[in-house]
Amino acid sequence: MSTLTFPSPLPSPAEDCEQLHKAFEGWGTNEGLIISVLAHRPAAHRREIRRVYAEIYGEDLLKPLDKELTRDFERAVLLWVLDAAERDAVLANEVVRKWSPGNRVLIEIAVVRKTEELLAAKRAYQARFKRCLEEDVAAHTHDEYRKLLVPLVSTYHYEGAEVDKSLSKSEAKILHQKIKDNDYSHEEVIRILTTRSKAQLLATFNEYHNEFKNPINKDLKADPKNEFLSALRAIVRCIICPERYLEKVIRLAINKMGTDEGALSRIITTRAEVDMKQIKDMYYKRNSVALDSAVKKDTTGDFEDFLLALVGHEEA
Predict the structure, then answer these.
(1) Under a CB-based contact definition with an 8 Å cutoff, are residues 311 and 272 in contact?
(2) Which one GO biological process term can you cite for this protein (predicted)?
(3) Is there a binding annotation on residue 254?
(4) Is 299 part of any known ligand binding site?
């Protein structure tokens, strides 16, 4: 559920293109005009703006935005203008090119997105980078991370509600035994976490809790400094409650010594039209502060204005 506000009726894409072109002309860029247009248009309309802009002015809208804007504001606007699938493709490519074990963006994309959204992102990846996402993940990751991440981005998951209860019992036992043995990257652990549907995994996690009197994520905290264990916990959290996981990413991005603007932009631009309302509600429950207030406190200038427009202001 989105908290974005859109004017009614929307201006035509051609009118918006004219306004954006004006923002690029003259002495200095009119960032406020860019925000007033792009931050208040739904995805389908932004797609049309980009198409019509190329028709009228002979270049992709991304080019003048890239040329005229700077730093965190530029990054957020460019992500926002991309289609959701292309945005995920860009984010995934950045991760695989600068791979580090602590990065959770591939897990976000593979687990939080619906199966069709992941497939669309993989198609966009191939179209934009002329390579296959799975091949790039395999080429840039190593050891247990490769064993985990390649099937995670490869598998087509069933999205229905049907659950095999006997399977959830048997696989809960497998997971418990491997975790107890500290054999976290065992092929059975990876097979279960990367191939089962979300409904099946939720049933397995519930069975695990009931049978062994501990949530699976608590048992996966045996070594807090182990990055692979942290990756497994991220997968489990994304399956159990993606909005809670995403709220935590934002909270950590804001609460660090120095804001993690990249993480903040990524979550806000990818979720503003999806589940931002739930993320905001969770943020308030967890921190007793409205998310827009936290963003306002930790960002400045055009970057702040743009993110606040996407987050949506709470009524006083």
Answers:
(1) yes
(2) response to salt stress
(3) yes
(4) yes
